[in-house]
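Thread: "does anyone have the structure for this chain?"

Original post by V.I.:
We have the sequence but no experimental structure in hand. Need at least a predicted one for the grant figures.
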Amino acid sequence: MFDLLVEAAGSAGYEKLGLFCLKRPASEAETALEDEPSPIIVCNYPDEFRRHYEQERRYVVDPLLRATSGSLTPFIWGEVVGRMKLSPVQQLLCRERTEAGIFDEIICPVHAPDGQAFALRLARGQPGSCDPAHLGVLQVIAIHFYYAFAKHWGPPAERSISNRGLQDNPQSALSHTSILAKREQECLLWTARGKSASSISVILGLSENTVNFYVKNAMKKLGTTNRMVAVVSAVRSGLIKP
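Reply from O.Q.:
Generated one for you, tokens below.
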């Protein structure tokens, strides 16, 4: 499953991937994290970098993990870190990432039931530039991967207890009777393809307010308040085919 994710992200130029589990509120002090295990669930980072990251507990000060906890939309490492006042160890982590060949990282947050949060991190192996048009598509991939991975993570006997936050929320489960109107399907389809509401309004010949109206209607029918989750639900149910 992870290999398929790497293949999909690789087509957009992102070769280094990691799925992280965030188990703490962003407001907690660093000292409260001393006993926390590594948040890495699966990744294809260079072995030496990963060992050092875990042994030195770089995840305790990793600025991107803190930013992910409070974000609902994807963001770029450089844009976030550039606005921060980094501590010496955080500056060291930035250098270690570069030396390990991890560049231009995009982080896609995934918020699960019970407040559990995850971060899918995607990076290039060579310096380049992040295309903002990739953000929406990568976020959809991240949520779709989360849904698929959640069904298989951990021993079957333990899933219902230890990984409860990874399971689908029954309150937002898609009803088989949910039917989207044609315009709602069209707006979700173009959202899945990474288009903004303003771009969709031009494509469909509608006002931006009307596009947002259709998207919100679709979200309501699909039982979610997040448009990316609505896109994934629509794809999984066959209502749209990006």
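V.I.: this helps a lot. The longest strand covers residues 103-111.
O.Q.: and The first helix runs from residue 2 to 10.
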